[in-house]
């Protein structure tokens, strides 16, 4: 009998590979409430992938499933990261492996400033429990300067009293400091005016310039952020499934025709 082919090495495999993923809310009754119904996509190193879909299509559910949120249950399918099956791994182990999630609505954490939050997160990411405050502070000084932020920002309590733009810029600062291999950005453009959107998109581009192998899965239902951050690949998510994958022209089609044109094709 011929030997089975060896699994691909981490560098040969896609950075992220989602195969036939089915997800339900953790509190759903058996057989009910399925949100993702066989979603499949892959993200390569150094590429920007945009995942677009209308409200209720399953975009945020996919983001939470990728990070191992206990609020959702994967009932079928696989998630592979750098060739490793991470479907059953808890959130902290996924983050330690190099997956970052930028939240649509970042939570406020009173009493914990940005510096201390990042020190704790970096300690897990780097596997250094006693990571020095000085090392984190120096990194923050560099990145706040590169992102055009006041370095006093890092002494503020995490997201407490932040404007929408400040919350999203803080997410980009965290992404820069955490040095992930994959960033999943869930509706980073939500609630931003055009000036804040431009600043956030510039911040993402600045992080990419420092980490050219960083893969990005940018989740949105608008084209406007894609005018500042051109995707390599666009995926259209409808009713829990990726129904079409292509280039930036798909985002232009969404802008011109809406998601109904894709829904009609699926129904045909």
Question: What do these coordinates show?
Answer:
This protein is of the alpha/beta class and 268 residues long. It has one domain (16-106, 162-267): 3-Layer(aba) Sandwich (Rossmann fold), CATH 3.40.50.300. The protein contains 8 helices and 12 strands. The protein has helices at 59-66, 91-97, 114-126, 133-146, 164-178, 194-210, 249-257, 260-267; strands at residues 16-25, 36-43, 48-52, 72-81, 84-85, 99-102, 109-113, 157-158, 182-186, 215-220, 233-238, 241-246. The strands form 3 sheets. It has a 6-stranded mixed sheet, with helices on both faces. β9 (182-186), α6 and β10 form a beta-alpha-beta unit. It is globular and about 60 Å long. The protein starts with 15 loop residues before the first strand and ends with a helix. The mean pLDDT is 88.
Kindly list the characteristics that best describe this protein.
268 residues, alpha/beta, Rossmann fold, 6-stranded mixed beta sheet, 4-stranded antiparallel beta sheet, 8 helices, 12 strands
How do the strands and helices of this protein lay out in sequence?
Blueprint: E1 16-25, E2 36-43, E3 48-52, H1 59-66, E4 72-81, E5 84-85, H2 91-97, E6 99-102, E7 109-113, H3 114-126, H4 133-146, E8 157-158, H5 164-178, E9 182-186, H6 194-210, E10 215-220, E11 233-238, E12 241-246, H7 249-257, H8 260-267
Parallel strand pairs: 3-10, 3-11, 6-9, 9-10
Antiparallel strand pairs: 1-2, 1-4, 4-5, 7-8, 11-12
Helix pairs in contact: 3-4, 3-5, 5-6
């Amino acid at each position: 009998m011929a030997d089975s082919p060896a699994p691909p090495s981490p560098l040969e495999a896609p950075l992220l590979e989602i195969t036939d993923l089915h997800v339900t809310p953790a509190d759903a009754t058996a057989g009910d409430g399925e949100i993702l119904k066989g979603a499949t996509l892959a993200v390569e190193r150094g590429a920007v992938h945009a995942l677009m879909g209308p409200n209720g299509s399953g975009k945020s559910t996919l983001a939470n499933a990728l990070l191992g949120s206990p609020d959702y249950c994967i009932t079928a399918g696989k998630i592979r990261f750098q060739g490793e099956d991470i479907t059953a791994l808890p959130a902290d182990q996924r983050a330690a492996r190099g997956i970052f999630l930028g939240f649509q609505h970042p939570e406020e954490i009173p009493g914990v400033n940005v510096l201390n939050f990042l020190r704790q997160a970096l300690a897990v990411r780097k596997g250094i429990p006693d990571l020095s405050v000085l090392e984190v502070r120096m990194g923050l000084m560099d990145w706040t300067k590169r992102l055009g932020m006041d370095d006093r920002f890092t002494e503020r309590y995490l997201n407490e009293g932040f404007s929408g733009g400040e919350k999203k810029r803080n997410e980009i600062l965290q992404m820069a400091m955490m040095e992930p291999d994959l960033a999943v950005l869930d509706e980073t453009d939500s609630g931003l005016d055009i000036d804040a959107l431009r600043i956030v998109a510039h911040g993402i581009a600045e992080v990419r310039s420092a980490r050219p192998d960083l893969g990005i899965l940018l989740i949105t239902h608008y084209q406007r952020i894609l005018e500042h951050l051109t995707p390599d690949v666009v995926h259209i998510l409808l009713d829990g499934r990726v129904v079409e994958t292509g280039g930036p022209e798909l985002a232009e089609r969404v802008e011109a025709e809406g998601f109904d044109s894709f829904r009609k094709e699926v129904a045909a």
